[in-house]
Amino acid sequence: MATARRERYRKQTREEAKAVALAQLAESGTAGISVNAIAKAMGMTGPALYRYFASRDELLTELITDTYRDLAETLAQAVADAAPADRFRAMARALRDWAKRQPDRYLLIYGTPVPGYHAPPETAEIAAGMMRTIVDACSAVGGADGATVRGATAGPEQQPLTELEAELARHLEGVRSWVPGEEPGGELKGRALRTWTRLHGVISLDVQGQFTGMGFDPSVLFEAEIDALVRGG
Amino acid sequence: MATARRERYRKQTREEAKAVALAQLAESGTAGISVNAIAKAMGMTGPALYRYFASRDELLTELITDTYRDLAETLAQAVADAAPADRFRAMARALRDWAKRQPDRYLLIYGTPVPGYHAPPETAEIAAGMMRTIVDACSAVGGADGATVRGATAGPEQQPLTELEAELARHLEGVRSWVPGEEPGGELKGRALRTWTRLHGVISLDVQGQFTGMGFDPSVLFEAEIDALVRGG
DNA sequence: TGTACATCAGTGAACGCGCGTTCACTGATGTAC
DNA sequence: TGTACATCAGTGAACGCGCGTTCACTGATGTAC
């Protein structure tokens, strides 16, 4: 089957095109991703790329789903590799490290959405899987639902929930979209949600350069936020 | 001075152009803002707009600084209008309400930065002013530096700082960029910073539509986060 | 109040540019006998 | 091992489009005497 070589070469070319597209993304944003420019950078003419992607939109979609998958895998791996007591911190740091390493990809999925562009349903599934990973990491931290390793975590004692945090927990009780399999309690879901938004808050502002010129080290802030999450549940 | 009428008309036209630009921003993003299209929507030809703006970039810059100023004023006003004990919540809610009312403007200043575009130094000053407003709101909440109204806040008792939160406070001690006038302590600055990133975390994900399909009400999450901030300092 | 001049707003044509995408075509690489 | 055919990769020309910006020009609106 010499056709296998062709197939391999095809895949290779697609990957190269996507790599170039990411470079363009970094340099001039989503709008700067251009089929013709990618082709030129690869040493071929524009129309040639249509052998590999049906349209610019398809390329963009693939860029996004690839990124989602990459990040989801990275988080899952970090959680899997860490001892239960370290899972939460490992997950949080893996998220930040990934984002700092490839800020443009982070913003591709968690930045300003491209108006009129609709992400494929596939991404919703991956996002749900990521939520599941965060829930796992949260449950390992100890507290109400974290029976798994309770006692094993030697961290600071957990604080009781605020009234409104309890209300959030009740509110989330019936939400089941992003958690396949056995359903965790509302409190755990609330913790996962807070984790997500807080980490995103620090990471996104950092990655967007909003901290530049302020004269402090964002990683210190990030570590403090991890600490607060561990303590506050 | 009949020239005053001309001047007034000029200002009016500029404002109309910016309004149309904001509509385009909402519909097709930053890249969709087009001088020619704006002019057409206003019933004139493209080049005519060059009587009012030196370039597309100048228009964009003005859009951004206007937005910064508007938000900064809104926050300051909310803080000024509220009783000391309510200041923190009032500020937080004003931020979210503003963002929900005009999501595109929020993302214009706190979303993915336009690559290659450099905001004018003026925005940094306004941002510093906003930081000052947040510091004010935080100091009214009670706690170490909040001598102003300590005792007046009937909320839940403040928690002591985590070890890493204390480290953040020490780290911020020397930072003086975003706080003109008398220098608040590192602990207060840490609280303000946390406030900013946490509120932004919820608001930005909400405004970007990342919560859609998850089946919960973002405002419940937001209120819970306010509560956690009040409690945790 | 009326005239001569200056200032301004807006037009229409034109510039060079890059975009996504189509199409007919050339070579090279594969498969079948 | 060699030939006939099919499949594929890539080219170059062309499409219509919209972009930011310039330029010379026309009218209208202002000011000065």
UniProtKB/TrEMBL annotation, chains A, B:
Q: Where is the HTH tetR-type domain?
A: 11-71
- Per the UniProt entry, the signal peptide is none
Question: Is Transcription regulation one of the keywords UniProt gives this record?
Answer: yes
Q: Does the keyword Zinc apply?
A: no
* Organism of provenance: Streptomyces endocoffeicus
| UniProt name for this protein | TetR/AcrR family transcriptional regulator
* Assigned keywords, A-Z: DNA-binding, Transcription, Transcription regulation
User: Which InterPro entries does UniProt cross-reference here?
Assistant: Homeodomain-like_sf, HTH-type_TetR-like_transc_reg, HTH_TetR, MT1864/Rv1816-like_C, Tet_transcr_reg_TetR-rel_C_sf
